[in-house]
Write a structure and sequence with these properties.
This protein is an all-alpha fold and 232 residues long. The protein folds into 2 domains: 105 residues, Cyclin A, domain 1; 110 residues, Methane Monooxygenase Hydroxylase, Chain G, domain 1. It contains 14 helices and no strands. Helix 2 crosses helix 9 and helix 7 crosses helix 9. The longest helix has 24 residues. The radius of gyration is 18 Å and the shape is globular. The N and C termini lie far apart (49 Å).
Length: 232
């Protein structure tokens, strides 16, 4: 069943160029499997949720799919996933994601925490940097870096999801989301991995600002780190 659903997800996400395609799903599944083994979680629930967590993403499929989880439910119905299992998986998916976390919505089950951790881990580090740039470049209206526009570190969930925000660009996304993720993880195994990935991002930003001759941004980065993501 997992193999068949994996094929369905691969086909559904085949045309994605924003960093949310099947390569991302595969990495989340591998991370989630590792975390589930360490935490002794229900592996079937974890793997189903990891496979299906982006098949209704609002950025890819719109608000209705995100609200009703149309694609995830159709796939699970097709492969006769037990109703109780389906509801557990849907509960995980609808409580995952950074915008939901900003609204105070977080996974409550061990399995949900594991899949959330795996998804957030894939958003940071070297892979997360590539995904973040891919998303920025896929949206032609989004610039990579504007040294005149500093991040909005006080935004709520609605503002974060708003298209065309002035501060919305590749570099600002680090401060508005990516550098915050390591402190939002649930499991010890994920936190240990996040420390390594977080360190890479800090080094990358320091070098980026050095090469761009932006000392004010280097100061901003150091202040941001000292304030742990609060307005610098």
């Amino acid at each position: 069943m997992i193999a068949a659903i994996s094929k369905e997800v691969r086909e559904l996400l085949a045309n994605d160029h924003t960093g949310h395609g099947f390569a991302h799903v595969e990495r989340v599944c591998a991370l989630a499997e590792r975390l589930a083994e360490a935490e002794k979680a229900d592996m079937q629930i974890v793997m189903l949720a990891a496979l299906l967590h982006d098949v209704d993403d609002y950025k890819l499929f719109g608000a209705e799919c995100a609200e009703k989880l149309i694609n995830a439910r159709q796939i699970m119905h097709k492969y006769a996933v037990a109703p109780a299992c389906e509801e557990r998986v849907c509960e995980i998916i609808r409580t995952m994601g950074y915008s939901r976390a900003l609204a105070g919505i977080r996974p409550q089950s061990l399995e949900g925490k594991i899949v959330s951790d795996a998804d957030m881990l894939d958003a940071i580090g070297a892979v997360g940097t590539i995904r973040c740039l891919a998303y920025a470049l896929a949206r032609c209206e989004t610039v990579v870096f504007d040294p005149r526009v500093f991040p909005d570190t006080e935004m709520d969930a609605a503002t974060y999801k708003q298209a065309g925000r002035k501060s919305d660009n590749f570099i600002n996304h680090y401060f508005e989301k990516l550098l915050r993720l390591k402190d939002m993880l649930f499991t010890d195994t994920a936190r240990a991995e996040a420390e390594l990935r977080h360190r890479f991002m800090i080094d990358f930003l320091r070098e980026f600002f050095r090469e761009h001759n932006c000392p004010e941004w280097l100061v901003y980065l150091e202040n941001y780190m000292q304030n742990k993501g609060k307005a610098a």
